[in-house]
Amino acid sequence: MIVENAWYVGAWSHEVTPSPLARRLFDFPVVLYRSLDGKACALIDSCAHRGAPLSLGTVVPEGIRCNYHGVVFGCDGICTKIPNQETIPANARVKSFPVVERDDIVWLWHGDPERADPSLIVDYPFHRDPAWPAKFAMAPVAGNYMLIADNLLDATHLAYVHGGTVGGSDPNVHMVAESALKPAPGGLRFERLMRGAPPPPAYSACVPELPERIDRWQEFDFVAPSTVLQYSGGVPAGSERASAPAPRFDMRIFHSATPATESSCYYFWSVQNGHATDDPQATEVIYAQIQQAIAEDKVFIEAQQLRVDELGEDRLFDNAADAARMMARRAVRKYARAHAAPAATEDA
């Protein structure tokens, strides 16, 4: 199920330029581009004249020009020019998507344009905060978009999948972690604290001076339908987290999954370095560690999708460690009901 009447990440701001970018979003071909006056635009990637992809076109002052016959469409999808013809037919238009650009993210609305409410967009000021230097990435994943949040909110996989990176090799560290899970507006908050734990290899790679035992934390804010904001770190065991000086490790990650199809998605993620903010190399190191961890997750998510496609989900069971994942799925269903089109609500 692709939840409608919701905002999804279409691209990072730096990806959207006057050179058209083709993506499949919400099971539609979409072209993203930046107009010559700097506005981010998103249209169905098919000319209303003969159907050629607009992503093969050129951005011109009037909009995006289809390079098959020269027809031009504005950011609103309405045709602005037909070569050698003054009259423009009423149906000379393509579907456009509401777009909001904020925090270095280009958000697209999937659903009824009249219901596109920018107040529903997740705020993430850390992308522009010099105290949290950031690096951005996107990973195409051959798996349903909701599997990304399922994975992030499942702490018990860390030692098995990420023993050599962000997890550490001792499963017991994660099994006995102090945790708190509670509903939040639009989703949930999930907090974990691991006292006196060995720093995982990724933490040590970023901050080699960390002692043998640290107090680790993980905080996740899930916002339906598909965004997770993460803050993780560690300080010497027994230290006050708020005031502990170096050596310490602090990291924020923005995660958001956008459906390409029912069984594939774009996994947008950015990582922010909070422990060595004046050292660009420190940001590169933390990025490399998270990139490796996401590659590890991708292997399992894509293999999981193949098995679910083949065998279905009815046979699967939940265990105690699935509480956050299950609450997130309930939040998605609640969002879908609250924002469903009136006819769909009545039918339900």
From TrEMBL:
UniProt signal peptide: none
Domain of life the protein comes from: Bacteria
Domain Rieske, first and last residues per copy: 7-108
This protein's name: Rieske 2Fe-2S domain-containing protein
A molecular function GO annotation: metal ion binding
Keyword Disulfide bond: no
Lineage, highest ranks first: Bacteria, Pseudomonadati, Pseudomonadota, Alphaproteobacteria, Sphingomonadales
Keywords: 2Fe-2S, Iron, Iron-sulfur, Metal-binding, Oxidoreductase
Pfam families for this protein: Rieske, VanA_C
Gene3D superfamilies in UniProt: Naphthalene 1,2-dioxygenase Alpha Subunit, Chain A, domain 1, Rieske [2Fe-2S] iron-sulphur domain
SUPFAM superfamilies reported for this sequence: Bet v1-like, ISP domain
InterPro entries the record matches: Cholesterol_7-desaturase, Rieske_2Fe-2S, Rieske_2Fe-2S_sf, VanA_C_cat
Residue ranges of coiled coil: none
